[in-house]
Structure formats: structure tokens, C-alpha cells
Automatic annotation (TrEMBL):
Coiled coil ranges: none
Family: Belongs to the ribulokinase family.
Name of the molecule in the record: Ribulokinase
Organism expressing this protein natively: Micromonospora sonchi
Reaction(s) catalysed by this chain's protein: D-ribulose + ATP = D-ribulose 5-phosphate + ADP + H(+); L-ribulose + ATP = L-ribulose 5-phosphate + ADP + H(+)
Amino acid sequence: MSGVEAGDRYVVGVDYGTLSGRALVVRIRDGAELGTAVHEYRNAVISSALPDGGTPLPPDWALQDPEDYREVLRQAVPAAVAAAGVDPQHVIGIGIDFTACTVLPTLADGTPLCEVPELRQRPHSWVKLWKHHAAQPHADRINALAHERGEPWIGRYGGKISAEWQFAKGLQLLEEDPEVYRRAERFIEAADWIVWQLCGVETRNVCTAGYKGIRQDGAYPSTDYLTALNPDFGDFVAKLDGPLLPLADKAGELTARAAAWTGLPEGIAVAVGNVDAHVTAASAQALAPGRLVAIMGTSTCHVVNGAHPAEVAGMCGVVDGGISTGAWGYEAGQSGVGDIFGWFVKHAAPAELASHQRLTELAAAQPVGAHGLVALDWWNGNRSLLVNHDLSGMIVGLTLATRPEDIYRALLEATAYGTRMIIEAFVEAGVNVDDLVVAGGLTSNELLMQIYADVTNRPLGIIGSAQGPALGSAIHAAVAAGAYPSIHEASQAMGRVHEAVYRPDPDRARAYDALYAEYRTLHDHFGRGGNDVMLRLRAIRNAAVESAASQHETALEVVV
């Protein structure tokens, strides 16, 4: 960290993740990171029952508490400013990024419905986290009807919209709790909601509106289409729509209430909301077309700018200005990456090997293919290319000689194969991918990074910041505050990247070509209708869980 100097000005970036929020204080002239603080969400991910012994939740639910988001502003922001040792009066802007699609229903004034007393025990009144996958049947209907009607927007999303997105979650809300749906005057991304909390002005950002809200060519899906899905769904766009602003614009100014929360000056610039992956492109100096940023953590999001629009099979979307103004931003993703490695360490590795460090050391000692395994990386479903969150993981080739480190390496490789599938889909559609820049917590695993370079056969750079999203939000705040004329100049001055840290080895790349061919065969067979055993198993599981829950509720009623 660099020291504080007289006359310098600063911005704050706040990165809202799955389990915590991080604030970062950044010097505007050079992007120096001066102080950071993290606040862990008290309720984290709500997946089994509402807080404090509340209503049980069905399978595949993932909720959050909006009060946890406010606490990040109250706790992490003042702590980061204190750690930086800067005068808060020299902070001129704040920007935020969020997981997406993380959405919540609110009243017209922004009050979350889960904070309305009579609705607090209604699960649909809470924030639906990005990895809430219980709306898969609704997504399937949305996709089927779009293709049946020839809706022009479906091609911009690779032919399928995701169960994670606004329309699937909104349709689930309507059909499972119509009263909460009617009470929801707004259905808003958490990124836009927290900006609303900061500046008192309701806005929408073009990024989430395009990628998660199916907004293309200036319009959302038509009322005719929505009422064909459900006669009562025709008003959904009215709940989504709001003042739409480009990224790096100023959404408003910090209110007195938010200034009291954060300790920052009232009236400073609040940047338009953004998404954790997309905002990172600026901090990685990766706004030029052809440079793909992979933000690797519990999941991975892939973003790359292109010079023109193209329809790419299985993509999360292509949006005009979705990453930066003046370019077409492409997004893809993998629903489980670090979560898969963590699952193995926590639940499957023997105690003496139950650490990422030890398993990585042992896995690194073997040549490519020595374990005789290939895995499918669908432990949390498949976001791209198949867009099906009912799919599940698989390991092929297990024998009595298979060791824990063999499985661990196969899981690392499986996620790299998933990324290669995405890259090849881009290239086949005419979207260049020349090199990769990796950001996120997994960059510290050198074996994993080298595997990605070898499997994709491309040079791989590493972002020069451990806090890529928070730095990206700070860079956007600097533009919103008028310190730079555009995000491009701000990115060059404040972002940083270590170029081509990992280069593909020709021999390992050839060896991985053979393994990748087997991965593709399994991918297409189990993911594209060759055998739907994964979907049948998921249906059997859900029925068993729901039956057990029903029996439990009946038993409680008898006791009462």
C-alpha cells in the first residue's frame, strides 16, 4: 500500500459477494489501494429455513437478508477509511458491485417486502440470491414459449435464459405466492437497490437490465408474450422498469442517512450499480475486445468485449454497453468452480489430506492424464453452455487405485474444460478470445492457473489486485465523480494486470486435447438429451425431500 499524500482524492469501492461485503479505499491518481475491510453477512445464504427458526425452504432455494447489505455500509466502509488513514472529506465518490442476478421485491419506496411484518415469514418476500435455482421449471417454460413464438431476443441469450434471472424468479414468485407478487411494486436487482439506499434515487443499470432482465434493443419482452406465459404476468415489466443509466454514470449523491452510515461526506457522487464480474474488466485493464476476464471464485463469470453483436449458443447474453460504453459485452459463466473444490475438501477428502494446499501439492506431481479420470463440473448445475441447473456432477474412471489427489486434480481440470467449451463457443460465433486475464480468489493456486493455460492453449494473465471487483467499483466511482472523462482512461490509470504469467506448454496442451475430447463426449451425452438420468435423479430427490417435509409438518400439526 502507498502512503497518503496531501492534495490526493479518493474513492470507495464496495463489492457485495455471496457471503460478505468488502469496502476498498483507492487513490484516484494511480489506483493505489490504501485500506480495506470486510463484513461477513450475519445470515449468509439462507437455504434451509428462514432466520430464527422460521419457515422451512424447499430444495434449491437460496435467499439473503437485505439488512446484511446495509450493515456492510455501516461496518466495512468506515473501517476501510480508518484503515486507509485518509480524511473522509477527501473521498469524492462511492461505487458498488453485486452478485447477479440477486433480486428482491420491494414497495414503491424501496422497503424490502421481507421487512413488512406480515410478510416476513413468506419466503418469496426475501432476496433471491443468484444461486437460487428453484425457478428452473419456470425458466424452461419461458424458453419454450420464446422459441414457439419466435421471440427475437432469445438468440441474444444463446437460445436459453437462466433459472437465475429476473423473469424466471419473477414468474416463480407470481405462481407460488400471488399475494407477495401483488404487493411487490418493484422487483429490483440488489445492485440497484443498494444504490437506491445510498442516494435515495431509484435507478437501473444497463448491465443487469440487459443480461438478467432480457432488455434488448430498447425494450423488454412484450406484454403479449408475458400474458401468454401467465395472464397475471403482464405487469411484470412495470415492476422492473426504472430510470436506465449507463455504467460509470452518476446515479445520484450520497444522502444524509447514508453519510451517517458510512462516515463519508454527504453529497458525494454515487456511481450507477454494476455486477461483480463486469466491473472487474476495468480493474484488469481488459476493456479491449478479445481479452476475456474470468472472475474465479465459488463460481466463475467470463466477460469479454466485442466490436459487434453476435448470437453465441449457450451464452448468458450480449448487451450493448454491458461491460463498457461503446462495445458489445458478452457474458458466460460456470455455476460451480471453487465450490466444487471446497466440497471435495470438506466432504470427501480423508482428514490427513483435507486441505487445498496438500491436495494441490500431490496433484501437481502427476503428469497429465495419469489419474485416468474425467469429470463433469456440474455440481451446481450448468450455466453455460447448457443453461440447466438441474444437471449434476460426474466422475468417470474411478478404480480401487484412485487416490484423493487424483479426484481433486480431475475436478480442477473439469472446470478448465468447461471454460474451454465457453471460449470455443465464442470463437465459433466470431467473437475473438486472444488471451485470458484471471481475477478472484483462485489465482493463488498456481497448478489451477497452469491447467487453464494448458487446456485453453492461451496465455493467461493475472489481475494485479486481490480485490478486482472492489477496485473496479472504485474506478467507476472515479468516473462518476468526474475525475476521468471515461472508464477507458480511468482503467488505464487505476487498473493493473500482470501479463501472460502462465503460458501453455505444447506437450501438456496436446495431452489435454485428448482428455477434453472425452469431456465433450460426456458433456453432450448427459447435457444434450443423450441420457437424462441426472434430471430424473433430481426429480426423485426433490419428491423425496418434499414428502419428508410434508410428513414432518403433519406430525407437528398433530402434536399441536
